[in-house]
Amino acid sequence: MGLVKKTGITDRNEVFEILQREGYKDIYVWRDPPGAFYDWHTHTYDEIRWVLRGKILIGTEEGEYLLEAGDVMVVPAGTRHWAEVGEEGVEYVCASRY
């Protein structure tokens, strides 16, 4: 797994352009309130989370990864993972690659 890449990029339009060039689909912005939690789950497609503001902790069977503004993480299809949002909430770009 590519884990977390620190890009420093937090401009929504720039993130969308990058993801489109990389072949991602279903690109949208998502916001979670402080303390939101997603229990263990998987997806049948590669998914990406690119944080625009706030923090989110994503756990996999390999470890836990704290994503902050400008960080991006690819979770490959079939990877068990969970997520927990930090105290200030989080806004991030979601996208999928089938």
Number of helices: 1
Task: Estimate the strand proportion.
Answer: over 45%
Looking at the overall shape, the CATH architecture is Sandwich
Spans of at least 5 consecutive residues whose pLDDT stays below 50 are none
- Indicate the CATH class: Mainly Beta
Helix content: 10-25%
What letter string, H or E per element, gives the SSE order?
Answer: EHEEEEEE
N-to-C span = 16 Å
CATH superfamily: Jelly Rolls
- In the residues, how many domains can be counted? 1
Average pLDDT, all residues: 95
Give the assembly state of these chains.
single chain
Structural class call reads: mainly beta
Main beta-sheet strand count, sense and barrel state: 7 strands, antiparallel
What does this entry look like structurally?
Helix content is 10%, strand content 60%. With 98 residues, it is mainly beta. It has one domain: Jelly Rolls, CATH 2.60.120. Strands 1, 2, 3, 4, 5, 6 and 7 form a 7-stranded antiparallel β-sheet that branches. Strand 4 (46-60) and strand 5 form a beta hairpin. It is globular and about 30 Å long.
Question: What topology does this entry show?
Answer:
Elements: E1 4-6, H1 12-21, E2 25-32, E3 37-41, E4 46-60, E5 63-68, E6 71-75, E7 81-97
Tags for this model:
globular; Jelly Rolls; 98 residues; seven-stranded antiparallel β-sheet; mainly beta
What would a concise description of this structure say?
The protein is mainly β and 98 residues long. Helices cover 10% and strands 60% of the residues.
